[in-house]
User: Fold this.
Amino acid sequence: MKLPWQKASAKKKQNRRLKQEKGKTSARLWRWDFNPRLMTQAGVMLLLMVVFYALWLKLMDPKTLPLQQVKLEASFEKISKEQLHEIVSGQINGGFFSLDVAAVTDAVSALPWVDTVEVRRVWPDSLHVMVKEQVALARWRDQALVNVRGELFSPAVKSFPAAMVELDGPDNSVVNMAHQFSVFNQALEQAGLNMKRVVLSQRRAWMLELSDGVMVVLGRSDIEKRMQRFIRFYSPLLASAENVRRVDMRYTNGFAVQWRV
Assistant:
């Protein structure tokens, strides 16, 4: 059994040991916080950051490597070179590095006859703008044009190509109608026939109007077979009949003809 004075002495030794350990820990932290090697590395990193930031500011200065040449590449069928040059020039407000390429791309893409745009910097002072124009496949009602991918685009009506075949159907049928139009057109051209209008009803029934005004009803099923049957019989039997108004191909083994009054 320890005496009271012995307990007090042991407690003092324990407190002294804890203070010594705490002092050692503080010393280790002190040495870590002020490690000369780490401070040197931190200084070097800070200096590099300042240098890179200053270099970035210099490169972003519009006066650094100003653009001297702009090369425009396009077919220039529906878009004039002057129009394209004006659009691009209006977006050039920086040097080689500070030029906003995305802004140039967006401005050119906004032209209705533009399909795709590629804008590239060419070292050290040039800009190359490559434009691919839309290729119109047909006219969508009187509102827009359909390109070869079945996508609508809306240039000014006065710029519509002349004698374009009109497609008319539900709003969600553009892609399908563009594809089927290509199939119809290929088959009819081989027979020396041309279309004026292609109609798809809400019930998904097909009807064609030829350039001579003859209406061809194909219905909803076996469309291509009915088309081939029409071509096979039209040339020898109906081509010379000027009073043909409508040919209904929805019969299994034949067709019905409606004559002009």
